[in-house]
Amino acid sequence: MKSILTNIRLDTKAANNCIKENKSLIGFDFYTDIPEYSVEKSDGDYIIVFKDASINMPDGTYTVDDGIVDKVILKCNEKNVDATIKLSMESDSDIKVSNGVPAKMDFYVDRTPLKKILSDKKIALNPVHKKTTKSPTNLLPQVPMKDIAKKTSELLNLLYAKPHIIGSNYSDSFAINDDVEYDIAISFATEASLKDESGFKIYYDEQNDKSKSLAEILNKALERKSPLNNLGIHAKKYGDEFFEIPIVTIVPAIENSRLDDAHLRDIDYRSKIALAVFNGILEYFKSN
Predict the structure, then answer these.
(1) Which of 24-28, 144-148, 238-242 has the lowest mean pLDDT?
(2) d(CA 125, CA 165)
(3) Global confidence as pTM
(4) H/E run at residue 75
(5) Could you report the per-residue pLDDT of 8-22, keeping only the tens digit for each?
(6) What is the tally of structural domains in the chain?
(7) 262, 266, 235: which is closest to 248 by C-alpha?
(8) Residues 12, 40: Cα–Cα separation, whole Å
(9) Residues 6+ apart with CB under 8 A from 191
């Protein structure tokens, strides 16, 4: 009798306990027993072949996008189920199997190679405060902004980066006057819209090409995670002088939109945004 794959578990939020242990988890659940399997490495990716198995779920591509694991591709043929785990960079893995109903195979990918990219990078994170709010539920913007900044900082700290959260700042131009020499500076802020907009957007320093590059990368990273509309990137002036440091402001949601307000109250949404920001920072330093 063939073993039947019934579910694939992908936890891609910043609050994931495995990520906190510098591991990425891909879980495979089978209806009864774990079938015989083999694991091979090909061009830095992993290919797991579950022998004499079938699936009771859609095959195809499952996006992970957590910084080290890009996606999982499931294919089923007459005899086997193949799971290809596509990585952003080569890494070690570990497997844990537990019997029961369902029987579970947990495939862990080591996240520590990312330290090579992020170690000692100084990153300013600025959750912008506001004295008033236009939220339909009176949500003060600094509450979700501080949570997103905190979760982003935790992810960066795990990989030996040096994030610094700016406290109680009412402006997104903090990096201009700060004494610390940061590598990049990111503000988190909400804004009210007069156009009934819903979505996320990013501002960048109009005088700095690196700032625009960082904004473009972060925008694509947020688009992969956020269910809200992508409102694009926009130039703004952070000061009269030219500054070497790339400065951006992330607006993860529109303050006076009921839909966006509901997302800002959602802890899972904040966690997804934090992981998207982490991915964007990682990608920026990969290319710079």
Answers:
(1) 238-242
(2) 5
(3) 0.93
(4) strand 69-76
(5) 998 766 667 788 889
(6) 2
(7) 235
(8) 24
(9) 251, 254, 255
